[in-house]
Amino acid sequence: MTIMTDKAHFECHLEAYIVQKLQAQGWVVGQSKHYHTEYALYPQDLITWIQTTQPQKWQKLQALNGDNTEKRIIDRLDDELNKKGTIHIFRNGFSMAGAGTIDLSESAPEDGRNQAVIDRYKANILRVVPQLKYHPSKDAGILDLVFFINGLPMATVEIKTEFNQSLEDAIEQYKNDRKPIDPKTKRKEPL
């Protein structure tokens, strides 16, 4: 395969275009440095979502946990994600002692009669993070784009242009570079 070196065909231009279009639709652009590699979360969005949509539960958790509130929530969420998986927890939330179920998203309302549901739906934080370093090791791989909803990673994208790589190259990259178990640390990869 011949690789073209014309900068107009680099993946970075396609990536920037996608990010720009998402941002125009209300997505927030994040930075890899704010991603928590151990928990595979964007914690700022998780905490903001809970504080904004469930203030009474947040206050109860703060009363019980004080300065450790965020860490307790993230640790509990991590346990539940490991047991039940992202989709289940995203749809159903997770329980926290003293606060009940912590919801992690709000689906689009069927109609406009319930303003509280509409407000929670509008509070969903959609974030795209370009060039996300997804593993704590220094020689870790980087994902071209990762999509988050309320701090939870939902999808990853490996961008290829038809001028220098193919769909098959992306598939091979996921197969060979994105091992489900890290060969060095034996740790399960969250993304």
Q: What are the key terms here?
A:
single chain; about 190 residues; alpha+beta; 4-stranded mixed β-sheet; two-stranded antiparallel sheet; 7 helices; about 40% helix
- Major beta-sheet overview: 4 strands, mixed
How much of the sequence lies in strands comes to 15-25%
Order of helices and strands: HEHHHHEEHEEEH
Instruction: Count up the helices.
Output: 7
Record field, number of beta strands: 6
Question: What count of domains describes the coordinates?
Answer: 1
Describe, in plain words, how this protein is organized in 3D.
This protein has seven helices and six strands, in the order αβααααββαβββα. The chain is an alpha+beta fold. The longest helix is centred in the middle third of the chain and has 16 residues, at 69-84. It has helices at residues 11-24, 43-53, 55-65, 69-84, 86-92, 115-123, 167-177; strands spanning 28-29, 94-96, 100-102, 126-133, 142-149, 152-157. It is 41% helix and 16% strand. The chain has one domain. The chain has a four-stranded mixed sheet with strand order 1-4-5-6. A two-stranded antiparallel sheet has the order 2-3. Strand 2 and strand 3 form a beta hairpin. The model has no long low-confidence stretch (mean pLDDT 87).
